[in-house]
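Before the break, one more example. Copy the sequence into your notebook; we will annotate it together after we see the structure.
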Amino acid sequence: MATHALPEDAHRRHPRRRLLRRENRWCRRANALGAQGGWRAYFAAVSRLGDGLFWYGLMGAMVLLDGMDGLCASAHLAAVGVVSLLLYKGLKRWTRRPRPFAADRRIRAWVAPLDEFSFPSGHTLHAVAFTIVALAHYPMLAWLLIPFTASVALSRVVLGLHYPSDVLAATGIGSVLALGSLWLFPAAGTLA
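Here is what the structure looks like once it is written out:
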């Protein structure tokens, strides 16, 4: 039986490998921002707030400023948060994708990761889901929540913790979860 050797550059022409190389280059470029102290401090602070502090503060403010309606909105956020947590932890265990800094020595983790695996970005998934649900209740918060969520998503790549595809997938998953919760409980988003 004759065997046909692949050309030496066949691996470079494979679309998936090309995409992975391109994504890795984007990661390295974004991660280089972290070498600049001001950017690193900003994205590290945003990432830390995205650990939950920002969202817990928002839920508390909703209750304090809007009483029972705020409590209902906060309960909705908490329910979406629990589902998001279970889903993203399950996906991480299933996919087991190494973080960019673990896969490429040229990428530096500018902050310590909360867990071992990369896909999907839990910070981004939660930020997107929480933002959509919170805006359904309080659309006037868009000026605050949209830039914060975009910063959280970008921080994950700049800090060397996620690939852009981790963040994009988390954006999609968080959107579906939030919109699904609003579809299941349509009255929940009509408080504002």
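The longest helix spans residues 37-95. The helical segments are 10-13, 15-33, 37-95, 100-103, 122-137, 142-158, 164-184. Try to locate both features in your own notes.
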